[in-house]
Each structure stands twice: as C-alpha cells, then as structure tokens.
Amino acid sequence: DLTSDRAALLSLRSAVGGRTLFWPTAQQNPCNWSGVQCDTTLNRVTALHLPGVSLSGQLPLGIFGNLTRLRTISLRFNSLSGPLPSDLSSCIGLRNLYLQGNRFSGALPEILFTSLRDLVRLDLAANNFSGEISNGFNNFTRLRTLYLENNKFSGSLPELEIPKLEQFNVSFNNLNGSVPKSLRSKPKESFAGNSLCGSPLDRLCPSKEDVPPAISVDLRRNRKKKNGLSGGAIAGIVIGSVLGLVVLLALLFFLCRKRRSSLKNGATKLTDAEFLGEMQLTGSNGFSLDAPATSSMMGGGNKKLVFLRNSSAIFDLEDLLRASAEVLGKGTFGTAYKAVLEGGMMMLAVKRLKDVTDSEAEFREKIEFVGAMDHQNLVPLKAYYYNKDEKLLVYDYMPMGSLSALLHGSIPSPSLISNNVV
Ligand SMILES: Nc1ncnc2c1ncn2[C@@H]1O[C@H](COP(=O)(O)OP(=O)(O)OP(=O)(O)O)[C@@H](O)[C@H]1O
C-alpha cells in the first residue's frame, strides 16, 4: 500500500540524498513529493522521476522490493553506483527503466530477465555495467528501446529476436565476434567501438573463404612447424637410440671378456712350454763375478723354483703360477711378465725363456753363473725354474721402467730401472 511505498521512498532518500532531501516528509502522502507519481485508483506509487538531481551512492535492497507498482523509474544522469538491486525484479509491471548516465557496475541480475517482461524502454547506457549481454533480453518481448552503449559489456552478441525493437545501441563496449543475423538491420553506429565484425559493419569477419590461398598455405606450414617432429621421426630416433645402446653394451661386454681372457692367458702362458735360448753373456766389463752362487732348492727336487745367492724362498712356484701376470715386453730370449703375488705381497719380473736347447745341467750351470753376477746396473737374478717345458728367470720388479724410458722419458734415477737391459 501507499504507506509501505512511502517507507520505501524514505529509505531511498536516506540512501541516495540529492533532491530527495527536499521532500516534505511531514506529509503522509508521498504522491505530492517531487518526482513521485501515483495512481489514485490503485493508491500506489507508479512512477519515480528523479533525473539529474545529484543522487549518489548505491541502491540498497528493500526499496524497489516494496515499490511493486512502479511502471516507470527514471534515475538517469545521477551519480548512482554499485550493482542493480535484485529486488528490482519485484516491479513486475515496470515499463520504463531509465538508468543511463550513472556509475552502476557489475552484471545485470539474471532474475530481471525473467520478471520484468513488460519492459518497453530500457536505457542502461553510459554506466560501468559488465559481463556478457544475456540471451535473456529475448524475454522482453515488448521491448522497443534497448540502449546499452558506453558500458563494459563483453563477449559476443546473442541473437536477439525481439520483434518490436526499434532503438538499439551496444556501441563502445568490449564486444567481439560477428553481428548476429537478427541485428544486421540495425544501423552500424549501434555496433561501433567494439571488436565486432560482419554486416552492417564494414569490417569483414575472418573465415576460411576470406583467408587468401597464399596465407592459408603459410598458416598450414606454420602449424606443421609448431607440431614439431612427426611420429615416424620420433619412432626412428627411439629405435636408433635403443639399437645404439645395445651395440654399445655388446661392445663393452666383448671388451671386458677379452680383457679377462687375456689376463687369464697371460697367467696360463707361464705354464706353457718354451725353451731357453743359448745365453750369450757379453763378458765381464763392468761386472763383478762372485764366487759360485749358492742356491736353495724349493721342495728338495730339481724341478722346483731355485733361489739364488741370499734370496730367501718366501714364495714358491705355486705362488708364481697363481700370480696375476701382465706382459712387460718381448726380448731376444723370451717374454717378460710382471707378476703380482697373491695379496699384492710382492711384485716380480718373470722372464720366460724360449728356444732353450741346453741340457738341464748346462742350463743350471749357466744360470748359476749369471745369478752370481753383481753390478750396480744389473738387476740380480732372484730365482729360476727349470723343467722340460718351462724355463723361468725371476727378478725383482723394477717399477720405474726401462733404460729406453729413462733415455727418452723423464725418469731420474738409474738405480731403479730394469737393468738387465743395461
Ligand atoms: N726386473 C724387471 N723389472 C721391470 N721391468 C723389466 C724387468 N726385466 C725386464 N723388464 C722389462 O721387460 C721388457 C722385456 O725385457 P727383456 O729383458 O725380456 O728384453 P730386453 O732386455 O728389452 O731385450 P733383449 O732381450 O733383446 O735385450 C722390457 O721393457 C724391460 O724393461
């Protein structure tokens, strides 16, 4: 009733100020207040005209929810802000809503599209409204004016099949896409200031047909480039990598086996039969010959390792055969090996003689003679071994290499070189 309409108007007055402050509130009947119109038959407020009267602030809920018989609201060209109150939806007989030229913001409440079905004029221009332009405008079947220009509406325009729509403007928003068919009859100025395209605008919408052939080929090529390698190429790379890895592993395996077997062979060869060539001692220049060498026989038999001079029998033939061996080089009389006794307790040079034609007695005599020689540049013979198949000479291992290495390399001390070559 009018009493509740009056109360709602007073709420509005206290919320927005401006000219409403001049309302003679002492009067119980609000129908004489400036800007307020009533239907005397209904005894209700039916229109509120407050254009350009310095209203400011937000429209709170609880005002329009009570002014339910309003047919016209005109609050244009004020400084009202904030979102539209959703209880505007209570004004179901509203025909004209003029809110242009304010600072309203936010999206339009969706409920308005289902309740204000009698709207004829809707002017929301020049505010800060945002969000998409709702398909719900199609519910306003009596609408003749729809002004939404100069806001921040975004997205694309929906098809608006509003039969009586005469005045339409959505210019200067953030709209994009093409102008829908139903609106193509509107003047192009109604769509200006957006990213819209298509009729009635001069800007054509890009489509497959619109792209010139040369550009479309380029686009396709770019797309291909962006896609990177083809599936086949990737599969090829993967298979190639796997094969490469397999070959590499096989090679490593083969090399390891080869190394192991060569070490094994080196050690085994010590047991192979070879013969001692005739030893040609080149005289006594620089050499001193001791008294006949005293030798100790390992194990008592003459097929054992024989230690010469003062060398004590701290290892035996078994130790020697079990030792890991590595070829040091080949000389005239055979091959020399570096033998590391088990546990690394001793490193020896074992010279394995080949082509020995001397009888055992002759061999022993000559080796005892060699073993008795003493000279600062000569590695003393530590022990020897003789049997039919194998003749070995055992020396201490000289870790600093040969005379050749001394002459051509950087080894300083002659006392540490293998001097059997000297
Ligand atoms: N006691 C040792 N300690 C370390 N390396 C040695 C020892 N004896 C020999 N060699 C090394 O073993 C390799 C072969 O030596 P070997 O005495 O069998 O022949 P060579 O003296 O080089 O030649 P040739 O017998 O013709 O005079 C040489 O590189 C040598 O330096």
UniProtKB/TrEMBL annotation:
Keyword tags: ATP-binding, Leucine-rich repeat, Membrane, Nucleotide-binding, Phosphoprotein, Repeat, Signal, Transmembrane, Transmembrane helix
This protein's record includes keyword Protein biosynthesis: no
Listed Gene3D superfamilies: Phosphorylase Kinase, domain 1, Ribonuclease Inhibitor
UniProt keyword annotation of Nuclease present: no
Family annotation (PROSITE patterns): PROTEIN_KINASE_ATP, PROTEIN_KINASE_DOM
Annotated TM spans: 229-255
One Pfam family, short name: LRR_8
PANTHER family (UniProt xref): INACTIVE RECEPTOR KINASE RLK902-RELATED (PTHR48010:SF76), OS05G0588300 PROTEIN (PTHR48010)
Name of the protein this chain belongs to: Protein kinase domain-containing protein
Species this chain originates from: Mikania micrantha (bitter vine)
